[in-house]
Amino acid sequence: MNPLTGCLFVSALLFSIGLGGALTRRSAILVLIGIELMLNAANLNFIAFWRYGPHPEALTGILFVIFSIAIAAAEAAVGLALILSVYRHFKTTDLSRLDSMKG
Amino acid sequence: MTFLILAVMTLAGAITAMTLRRLVHCVLALAICFVGLAGLYLYLGAQFAGLVQMLVYVGAVVILIVFAILLTRSHEAPPQKKWTGLAGVCVSAAVFAVLAWAVIAGGAIQGIAGGQPQATMQQIGSALMGRFVLPLEVVGLLLTAALIGAVVIAMEEKQSAR
Amino acid sequence: MTQALDQIFVTLKHWAVAYFPAVLQPAVSILLSIAAVLVIFPTLFAVTTILERKGLARIQNRYGPNRVGPFGWLQPLADAVKSLTKEDIVPRSADKLVHFAAPLLLVVTAFLEYAVIPIGRNMVVADMDAGVLFFFAVSAAMELSIFMAGWSSRNKYSLLGAMRAVAQMISYEAPLILSSVAVAMTAGSLSTVTIVERQAGYSGIWPHWYVLTPWGLAGFVLFMVAATAESNRSPFDLPEGESEIIAGYFTEYSGFKFALFFLGEYLGMFAISGMAITLFLGGWSAPFSFLTWVPSWFWFFAKLLTLIAVFIWVRGTLPRLRMDQLMSFAWKFMLPMTLMVIFSAGLWRFLPGGVLRWVICAVPIAGLYVLLSSCMAESRRIQKRTYKFAE
Asked: Could you tell me where the DSSP H helices lie in C113-241?
């Protein structure tokens, strides 16, 4: 088990935890947390391949991760704004109650 | 050894974040997970990525989620049916099995065991301003759009003048 | 001789490390540096508490504490004994783990910030390639501990204080980081050691400190204002103001944990002053070229004490800002000013030296300042009184 495989296993596990949580939890905020975990797992994958892959001097891995972090932050901001707006209308963040398109 | 500690911290934080009932505890566990990930990036030699992860994720995204929890008054996650947890674990296990199979059967992913690659600030700076200047500008525009969009969506409707 | 005095702590450390076998030497070297930080800055904290109380007292036309020891100088000892022996009350409905971990996290991040501040020539705990970024990343983690403290106390006032504190700290992080971007841009590096070395030259008797340039002066003032807000000190201490919200987010803490919070806040204040000194005031370099014989660490601590005195002075003089005034000040005044500072720093780099460069770089900053302050003054004009229900 070399270091690269170790990192890839951690990343895969993190991704599956995030996916399981995002699919099964009922609170909108927990779904968002799951999505953030999935994004972070992908970032870890990028850094692992940058470190142990060919051409690390091209810095592609690190720069991809930087852009991914920036985009994930923007997406979290917009997602949370949406959750706030939905809460204001439905008075709940429970996803199983958000079942009407009216209003 | 360091790698093992950081990996365990990250995974423990992630599992705790997805299973606890009180949302603020979930968010704090998520912060621990992010710190573990930043440690992993630093361990792998990507200094800039690790520090940006701390600054943006722990310093901003976690606080954003905390504000959202407090503003939507959802202090406890809604209760779930018994079988949902089991279904979640099954789905996670299945996905992990597929990914692990892909990693193992991917042939000789030995990884090129060269020395620690150099990623100084100078190199990252010149790469950002040289080869990656277009994505940089686009990300700037995207962040501006996201900022304005989030403010507009979350803004309270103005009451019409009485 | 002056060189030896300058490097005396470095030579002491090398001498102590040489006693250990070669395998352990790196670890011992790091441990000694950390021990130095752990000894110096809490001592400075103890001295600052008494200085602050006496300084504030004199500004307010009264004596400070003057019972314990000569002129009250042993007061920190009395405070330490009190905080160690007080009963540690934890509210019954408080969240025990988070309540316990919050002061710990605050103190840990506060100490971690000292790793990248160069205290003298060759005297830095960790010369990181991205030292400035590390500092800001760790201070972002500090905000989380304040939220944890406020939330875990299960007290409406604590929560309110914590939310205000976090909102304030996030808002003021933007001008803080952008002012240091101008410095990083000019110095060409994010490493604190490199930034100080770039400012260590002299032209005539004047040093090359960044504060002696127009954009550096504006940047320094903005950085200090943002640093006051980041440390939750007056006039930005609404989250912990005693007359407003009892004690804000540390209402429910008593005894040693309260002392830890106090320690963490003051250490954060010292660290951010240290960063201001590194970025703008030339770190450990002497103010005039004929004073370079004085050791470098002496200059660092002299500048640090001066900045602490300025913090105390401002606390005793200015009234507290209201939350909405605070937030609009950050977003509507300081952020545009820091963007103009970055622009002016760029101009400074590409213009030839001389008086003209000074004028050309100072004019945009001064112009924007006049514009923004007149805009902010507009909104403060007293408006016609309207009655909501009595029409």
From this structure: 131-152, 156-187, 192-198, 214-230
pLDDT at residue number B162? 41
Cα A6 to Cα A48, A59, B7, B44, B115: the distances in Å are 9, 21, 9, 12, 18
Q: Give chain C's domain count.
A: 1
C and B adjacent (3 or more CB pairs under 8 angstroms): yes
Give the best residue of B20, B30, B42, B51 to mutate against chain C (max C CB count within 10 A): B51
Q: Where are the beta strands (DSSP E) in chain C?
A: 202-203, 206-207
State which residues of chain A have pLDDT below 50. Answer: none
Interface pTM, i.e. ipTM? 0.92
Is the domain of B6 the same as that of B62? Answer: yes
CATH architecture of A3-97: Orthogonal Bundle (1.10)
Give a yes or no: residue C174 inside a domain. yes
Within a domain: C74:
no
Query: Model confidence over C119-158: pLDDT tens digits?
Result: 988 888 888 889 999 999 999 988 888 888 888 888 777 8
Give CA–CA dist B154/C1, Å, rounded.
65
**Distance of residue B82 Cα from the nearest chain C Cα, in angstroms:** 27
Asked if residues A26 and A34 have their Cβ atoms less than 8 Å apart, the reply is no
Residue B110 maps to a domain: no
What pLDDT, on the 0 to 100 scale, is given for residue B159?
A: 56
Q: What are the tokens at C276? A: 């201001």
- Cβ–Cβ gap B63/C170 under 8 Å: yes
Question: In which band, very low, low, confident or very high, does the pLDDT at B161 lie, cut at 50, 70 and 90?
Answer: very low
Nearest Cα of chain B lies from the Cα of A94 at a distance, in angstroms, of: 6
Q: Which residues form the domain of C171?
A: 89-377
pTM summary value: 0.91
Interface of B with A in 62-91 (CB under 8 A): 64-65, 67-69, 71-72, 74, 77-78, 80, 84-85, 87-89, 91
In the complex, which subunits touch B with 3 or more CB pairs below 8 angstroms? A, C
Distance separating alpha carbons of residues A51 and A58, to the nearest angstrom: 11
| Within a domain: C84 | no
Number of folded domains that form chain B:
2
Interatomic CA distance for residues C149 and C239, integer angstroms: 12
Give the CA angle between residues C53, C47, C78 to the nearest 5°. 75
Nearest CA in chain B to A55: B117
C-alpha distance from A99 to closest chain B C-alpha (Å): 16
Distance CA C14, CA C36 (A): 14
- In DSSP terms, B76 is beta-bridged to B22
Residue C384 has pLDDT above 80, yes or no: no
